[in-house]
């Protein structure tokens, strides 16, 4: 196997583990929002950082003690840190550098030379990150067990705050739509 093929395998395995982690975040979001199987996939439309924040903030506000709150914060912070690594992998080209993987996230110096910002990732770096993501899956399972759906009245008050259902709004919106349609 060539060094480049080995690099493909390391990167692919990272993305496999991260996908499983993201799936757990989605499960937590689905539970918090009280969605059924049919509506559940809509959670994936929320940017990942916001899903992590939703889970973290909801779990912390529902925590029954300091230990549960610390667990929620630590777990979600570790997932956010892992997402930083995923961003490097997802948005940077890479090459094999011997047995290591060099992501080409870089700055260009004044003399036009490529200077890597990130050091090459070794096989041990990848292995440590796989282990961390597997542990985070287990921690998320515990967190999912602790959280409860957000009461629907809280969701309704949020909608009222950001989407006022004022009766004055609708005629005004209809008039604006007619004017735009006519080109006035």
How would you characterize this protein structure?
Helix 1 (3-33) crosses helix 2 (48-62). This protein has a two-stranded antiparallel sheet with strand order 1-2. Strands 3-4 form a two-stranded antiparallel sheet. The chain is built from six helices and four strands. It has one domain. It is mostly helical and 184 residues long.
What is the CA-atom radius of gyration, in angstroms?
23 Å
Major sheet attributes: 2 strands, antiparallel
Beta-strand fraction estimate: 5-15%
Return the domain count.
1
Distance from first to last alpha carbon: 67 Å
Low-pLDDT regions = 166-184
**Cross-sheet strand order for the largest sheet:** 1-2
Element-by-element helix/strand order: HHHEEEEHHH
Q: Could you tell me the mean pLDDT?
A: 84
Helix content: 55-70%
The helix-and-strand class reads: mainly alpha
Count of helical segments? 6
Annotation keywords:
single chain; 184 residues; mainly alpha; two-stranded antiparallel sheet; two-stranded antiparallel ribbon; 6 helices; 4 strands; 66% helix; disordered C terminus
Give the SSE layout:
Elements: H1 3-33, H2 48-62, H3 66-91, E1 94-97, E2 100-103, E3 106-108, E4 114-116, H4 123-146, H5 152-162, H6 169-182
Antiparallel strand pairs: 1-2, 3-4
């Amino acid at each position: 196997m060539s060094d480049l093929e080995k690099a493909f395998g390391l990167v692919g395995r990272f993305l496999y583990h991260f996908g499983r982690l993201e799936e757990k975040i989605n499960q937590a979001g689905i539970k918090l929002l009280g969605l059924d199987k049919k509506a559940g996939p809509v959670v994936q439309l929320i940017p990942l950082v916001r899903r992590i924040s939703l889970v973290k903030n909801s779990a912390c506000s529902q925590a029954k003690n300091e230990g549960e709150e610390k667990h929620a914060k630590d777990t979600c912070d570790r997932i956010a840190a892992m997402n930083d690594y995923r961003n490097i992998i997802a948005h940077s080209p890479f090459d094999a550098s011997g047995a290591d993987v060099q992501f080409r996230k870089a700055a260009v110096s004044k003399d036009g030379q490529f200077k890597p910002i990130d050091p090459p990732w070794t096989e041990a770096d990848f292995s440590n990150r796989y282990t961390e993501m597997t542990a985070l899956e287990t921690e998320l399972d515990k967190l999912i067990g602790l959280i409860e759906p957000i009461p629907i009245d809280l969701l309704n008050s949020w909608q009222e705050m950001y989407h006022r259902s004022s009766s004055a709004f609708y005629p005004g919106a209809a008039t604006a739509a007619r004017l735009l349609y006519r080109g006035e």
